[in-house]
Design brief:
73% helix; mainly alpha; elongated; 206 residues
């Protein structure tokens, strides 16, 4: 198609796809964080502590610390991670817990996700800017609220929101991991959904 006969094709598309690749990696680390976090919570409930001989009242306000003390008593070693429940389950032979304990800690997973998105966000920003310049040459306007343009803008807003909220300690971890997951769902819609279900200037079906 005439609109695709441009040098922008070799610049704009790889940049956007690279940003999608970064967001895919961030999605994977976010999902891993959420799995590890929720399994840890399931191992540090009051029922679990009671079944292992430690009363919730004795655990105080922090069941994670109580579980850490329990792990130290059962295994003879202190837990440096913030997932003592998984550490105890791993020591008892739980294969899933053993696999998760081989992964980075929750804090490290959160930092890894942040750094990956810190790479992906500038890439998608450059991709949108270059796409606008290409649109000016091809269609005569920088922005026409085409479905592809609008969905790309939504992706940019979601990840920008992630970066902003990650500066607040109360949002780091579970909340920002969910934002990362939502952001990648928007990426999938932008990359595939718009082309499949919605017609626009970016529809190049033969």
């Amino acid at each position: 198609m005439p609109a695709l006969q441009s040098y922008w094709l070799a610049i704009h598309v790889p940049t956007v796809v690279a940003s999608y690749a970064a967001f895919l990696l961030a999605f994977c680390t976010s999902v891993l964080y959420l799995i590890k976090y929720h399994l840890e919570r399931s191992h540090t409930t009051g029922t679990t502590l009671t079944s292992m001989g430690l009363q919730p009242a004795a655990a105080g306000a922090n069941p994670t610390m109580a579980m850490a003390a329990l792990v130290a008593g059962r295994t003879g070693s202190t837990v440096q991670d913030e997932t003592p429940g998984l550490a105890l389950a791993a020591a008892q032979g739980d294969r899933i817990a053993q696999w998760l304990m081989g992964m980075p800690s929750l804090a490290k997973l959160d930092v890894i996700t942040y750094r990956i998105i810190a790479v992906g966000l500038p890439l998608i920003s450059l991709g949108i800017i270059m796409g606008a310049m290409w649109a000016k040459e091809a269609w005569g306007a920088y922005w026409q609220w085409d479905p592809k343009e609008t969905s790309a803008l939504l992706v940019w807003i979601i990840y920008l929101t992630y970066m902003h909220l990650h500066t607040r300690s109360q949002w780091r971890g579970v909340r920002t991991s969910w934002i990362s997951v939502i952001g990648f769902a928007a990426v999938i819609f932008c990359y595939l959904g718009v082309n499949i279900w919605i017609s626009g200037l970016h529809s190049y079906k033969v």
